[in-house]
Amino acid sequence: MAEKILMKGNEAIAYGAIDCGCDGYFGYPITPQSEVMETLMKVQPWETTGMVVLQAESETASINMVYGGACCGKKVMTSSSSPGISLMCEGLSYIAGAELPCVVVNVMRGGPGLGTIQPSQGDYFQTVKGGGHGDYHPIVLAPASAQDMYDFVGEAFDLAFKYRNPAIILGDGVIGQMMEKVELRPAKPRRTEEEIRALCDSWATIGSKGRHGNTITSLSLDPQVQENFNIKLQKKYAEIEANEVRFSTYMAEDAEYLIVAFGCMSRIGEKVVELAREEGIRLGLLRPITLYPFPKKEIDSLVPQLKSILSLELNAGQMVEDIRLVVNGRIPVNFYGRQGGMIPDPEEILEVFKKTM
Amino acid sequence: MKEEIIIAGFGGQGVLSMGKILAYSGIMQDQEVAWMPSYGPEMRGGTCNVSVILSDKKISSPILSKFDTAIILNQQSLDKFESRIKPGGLLVYDPNGITHHPTRTDIQIYKIDAADEAAKMGNAKAYNMIVLGAFLKVKPIVKMENVTAGLKKSLPPRHHNLIPMNEQAIKVGMEAAVKVR
Predict the structure, then answer these.
(1) Which helix (H) or strand (E) holds B7?
(2) Bridge-partner residues for B2, per DSSP?
(3) Is B138 at the interface with chain A, CB within 8 A?
(4) Which residue of A25, A180, B98, B99 could cross-link A146, Cys pair, CB 3.0 to 4.6 Å?
(5) Nearest CB to A177: which of B37, B61, B153?
(6) Pick from A294, A297, A310: which is nearest to A128 by CA?
(7) Residue A290: beta bridge partners?
(8) Which parts of the sequence belong to the Pyruvate/ketoisovalerate oxidoreductase catalytic domain (chain B) (predicted)?
(9) In terms of CA atoms, which chain B residue is nearest residue A265?
(10) DSSP characters for B81-109?
(11) In angstroms, rounded to a whole number, what is the distance separating the alpha carbons of residues A179 and A150?
C-alpha cells in the first residue's frame, strides 16, 4: 500500500512536482501558497532527481524563467497567488503565443489589488478567459482536495505537452492551506535528454546538430501569417474542448435542482446536497474539474430534468456567466457567492437555495 | 463514525499541532481526515483556531458552522464557539482566564486545568497534549497506539525522544479532566 501522508494542498503541489519528474520550479513567495516553495526547499529534490528549485527576484522573473525552460522542452512550472499571477500574465500570453508547455499554479486569494490573503475564486475570469492579451486559452484544472493538488501537477504537465499550451492549476486558499490525507504515487524519473529530443525535437531549442534550427517566437509582423497562426491556435483549442473536458457529479442522476461549483465550493456544495436530500429535496451537484474546457455538453444534457441551477462561487458571479451561456434561458440560473475571504457554510447556502426553489 | 471538532485558543498554545496530531491519529486508523486552520496574520498571543474532521467516509465540506466537539482554550473562543456546538455535543475547556463560564445545558461540559497540570509536570509544552487527553477521555475516537503513531508521523525524528512525555501528558489530561455537567 502506498504511503498516506497528512499534508497541506500546497505541500502536495511540491510533492506532485517532484514525483511527476518536474525539471524546474521557479517562484516567488506569496500567501497563501508559500508552502509550495518552502516544501521544495526543505525536500531538496536537486539532491535526488536533479530538479532545479529557484527563488526568483519577482513573479515576472519566475514566469520568464519558465518561458526559457519550456523552450528547451523541460517540464517547468511556477506557483503564486492572485496578485502574483497578475504579474505573470504577460509571460503567460507569450508562452501561449509561442506554443510552449508549462504549468502554473494559482492558489487564489481575495482581490482586487492586494485584497486579502484569505481564500477566493475571484480569478475565474482572468484564468479561463486568458489573463494576458490576445486570443488564447490556458488549460485550467480546478483541484478540490490535497490529493487533487498532488495528482493534477502530473496531469497538467501531460496536457501541457500534449497540446504545447500552458496549463493552470486553479486552487484557492482553502485547498492550499487545508491538510488532508494524500496517497503518494510511485515517482516518475525526469526525462532524459534523449527522451526530450524524441518528444520535442520538432520545436524545442535543444541544439540543431543535423537539422535546421528551431525558432521560438510569438511575433509575426505579417498580418496574414499571424492570422493563419491564430486560426491554427483556435483549431487546437477546439481539439482541447472536444477531448479534455473533465467533471464529476454527485447525486445528479435524479436531480431536479443542480448546484454547479468548483474547487473548495464543490466540497461545501456536496454537504448542501446531503442536507437537502435529508429534507427530501432532489438536489444534485456538478463539479467542473476543467474550467477550460468548460463542461458545456454535460451541463446541457442535465437541463431538461432540472427546474433551476445554482452557481456557487467565492466571487461576485463569474462562472455563472458560462453556465447561463450553456442554459441559454431555458431554466433559471441563480448565483450565490461570498467575497473578500468570507466562506459560506453549508446551512447558509441551503437557506439561500431554498429561496430560489 | 464522523467527528467534527473545533480547537480554538491563543497562538502559541499548540492549537494547530494538537489538531495535526489528532488528524494524523485518524490516518493511522485508516480514516478520512481534514484539518482546516484559520490562517492569516496569526501570531503568538493572538487568537487561532483549527477545525478537524475525522470520518469513516469521504469528507465533503471542510467548512463547518456547527461542531460535535469544541476544545476551547480562551475566553474569546468560548464566546465565539459555545453556541456553535451541536445539541448533545461536547465542550472541553480550560477554565484558566475564563470569567464568563459556559451556560449551555444541552451539551456535555468538561474542564481541564491544563496549565496547572503542565506546571506540575514541569513542562509547559505538555499543555496541548494534556488538553487532548481530556478530550480523548470523554470521546476515545482514536486509539492510544494510533496517537503514538500519529505523534511519530507529525514530529520530526529529532523530537521523537519527546514522544513518551507526550503520551504521559495525554494520560495526565485523561485523569485531570473534570465533568462540569
Answers:
(1) strand B2-10
(2) B55
(3) no
(4) A180
(5) B37
(6) A294
(7) A141
(8) 11-175
(9) B61
(10) HGGGEEEEEEEEE--TT-SS----SSSEE
(11) 12
Which residue from A minimizes the CA distance to B41? A117
Q: What are the sequence ranges of the domains in chain B? A: 2-179
Pick the CATH number of B2-179 from 3.30.365.10, 2.30.40.10, 3.40.920.10, 3.50.50.60: 3.40.920.10
How many angstroms separate the Cα of B152 from the Cα of each of A247, B32, B82, B156?
38, 19, 32, 8
Choose the closest CB to A180 out of B34, B61, B63.
Answer: B34
Q: Do B62 and A181 touch (CB under 8 A)?
A: no
Chain position carrying cell 523552450: A71
Distance CA(A234)–CA(A282), nearest Å, equals 39
Q: Do A271 and B60 touch (CB under 8 A)?
A: yes
Domains of chain A: 4-193 (3.40.50.970), 250-356 (3.40.50.920)
> Do the beta carbons of residue A178 and residue B62 sit within 8 Å?
yes
Amino acid in the structure at residue B66: K
Q: How far is B62 from chain A (nearest CA, A)?
A: 7
State the Cα–Cα distance between residues A252 and B63, nearest whole angstrom.
Answer: 22
Q: How far out from the chain centre does Cα A287 lie?
A: 14
- The neighbouring-strand residues paired with B91 are B70, B109
Q: Which of A91, A82, A66 is nearest to A31 (CA)?
A: A82
Encode chain A (357 residues) as per-residue pLDDT tens digits: 578 899 999 999 999 999 999 999 999 999 999 999 999 999 999 999 999 999 999 999 999 999 999 999 999 999 999 999 999 999 999 999 999 999 999 999 999 999 999 999 999 999 999 799 999 999 999 999 999 999 999 999 999 999 999 999 999 999 999 999 999 999 999 999 999 999 999 999 999 999 999 999 999 999 999 999 999 999 999 999 999 999 999 999 999 999 999 999 999 999 999 999 999 999 999 999 999 999 999 999 999 999 999 999 999 999 999 999 999 999 999 999 999 999 999 999 999 999 999
> Is B63 within 8 Å of A343 when comparing Cβ atoms?
yes
ipTM: 0.92
Q: Are strands A139-141 and A166-172 parallel, antiparallel or unpaired?
A: parallel
What is the pTM for the complete model shown?
0.95
Closest of A81, A113, A121, A107 to residue A339, by C-alpha: A121
Q: Does B23 touch chain A (CB under 8 A)?
A: yes
Q: In a 3-state reduction of DSSP, which class is residue A181? A: strand
Q: Grid coordinates 495528482 are at which residue? A: A151
A294-326 residues labelled b (16+ CB within 10 A) or e (exposed): bbeebbeebeebbeebbbbbbbeebbbebbbeb
**Partners of A141 in the beta sheet?**
A169, A290
| Chain A residues inside the 8 Å CB shell of B66 | 347
CB-based contact (8 Å) between B49 and chain A?
no
